[in-house]
Amino acid sequence: MSNTILVTGATGTVGRELVKALTVAGADVIAMSSTGKVVEGVESRVADLADPASLAGAFRGIDTLFLLLPLQANMVELARNAVATARAAGVRHIVRSSGAEADPASASAIGRVQGEIDQLVMQSGVPYTLTRPNCFMQNYLTFYGDMIRAGTLYLPQGDGKASFVDVRDVAAVNASILQHPAAHAGKTYTLTGGKALSNTEVTQCIGAALGRNIGYVAVPDDAAVASMREAGMDEWSIETVMSLNRVIAAGHPAAVSPDVERLLGRAPNTFEKFAADYAASWRQQPSGQR
């Protein structure tokens, strides 16, 4: 039986690694993005999650859909479009990349919106698998990279800990599921690293890889909100990001799940390995000084 896999968000942090893992495995993979960027070496399709007509073209001939949504105010609407189009196109399985602690009844904005989308997928009538990754190690490259390069990390997360997961492990798990989706139908997997770390411990790991001290300052919530407003972030995004910060400060993402090791047959990557592998990225000058 054929298994043509479409990866949404294929040019993003998770999507790029996932397409790479599927390609190495010899899977029949198609990359989808809304930007028109292509992924070298695989067929690429352009579609807008807000436009069901464009999705219909992108989903044509697809057996298994990897559904990854941008974190933005209309993401539930985008999910509804994708799920309805997948069902109409005859997609046989949806692998949905969600988030740790997703729950439509969650007190946190980020957990609530992820949970609402999970419910849409579960109630779609299409066989599904949910993967719920914890906070990404790669956030320290993308969102926090300039602060690391400048020598001090400022976040409103107190001394809270999280079992950070390497995106490369997230991609490997999803690649395995996507190639054999029937074996994972109806299942939910929580993807974490093997150890919970505070930001003080994270910056110590990064500092050890760089051979210099990296500091961490726990900033007050109101200062973080003011900074995000000054940067032009919209109120929905600010509240969603701050809800994640509060969850981390409270230590909720500290739990360690066995799912990565169970699915990959090896321990998840450590933060020390991640820091050593990406040390060169932090040795560049901060973007404002280039």
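(the above was protein one; protein two follows)
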Amino acid sequence: MTPTEIRARVLHRDRLVVIIDKPAGLPVHAGPRGGPNLELYLDALRFGYKEQPSLAHRLDRDTSGCLVLGRNRRALARLGRMFQGGRVEKVYWAVTDGVPKAPEGRVDAPLAKRTPGRGWKMVVDPTGQAAVTDWRVLGQAGGRAWIECRPRTGRTHQIRVHMAHLGCPLVGDPVYAEGVGEAFADEMRTKLGPMLLHARAITLPLYPDQPPVEAVAPVPGHMRRALEEVGMDGAAEDAFARRQRAEALAAAETAPADEEPVEKLKSRRGRGFEAPRGPGSGRGGFGGR
């Protein structure tokens, strides 16, 4: 990606955070073998700060959508407490092979890491860490379902494992749709095509005296057809995506460099942290229609 291309993926930006629309297929960190990863492009998102932003959480390589970056250490600490405390509302859209028997529900199934043969995977295990995912069906057709998932915990591969546990694995999941470990994931990606999981929206109650920061990521091209086949309104999504992209491009081209946050000066004086006021975030529907 060029600097202009990654800036065009900015969904929200203020003095503490940058939220971007992560593309599918790009890991957020370098793996053992190196290669392209999101951190290589973060310098283009400094917007006048001395340091580049850092990841406040992570998305799997094959997952697209909303990803939060903290712009300084205090922001990252604040975001870390929010994620750990379950105060961040996350909405994912998935297309699954199989349709749940109920229109909505909750998967409450602890997860643990296992290494069967080569590679590793997460499995449902009563002795594992607590993991909870709320879900509802937004559409269905031809044996597939469009499911909105709201994870209440943040375990590795949580939605992927929970949907498979429900009997509805994600379309294109290179690990849990086929029951193999991570060591075989590249081979399965070639066979199955892209995994259909998108981090659609995120809400951060970042500033106590302001409405929550909200961001919504347009549906990526590799999920478009599959979602339309199970009920998504393509015209409405197109209108939203055009508006979102135009706003992002305009902001990337015209926004001045930001000033360093006021909270750094306050911390040197020994005062408590007080979040500066940031601009209002963009709005967008989280729903499925």
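Reviewer note on protein two: The chain has one domain: 3-268.
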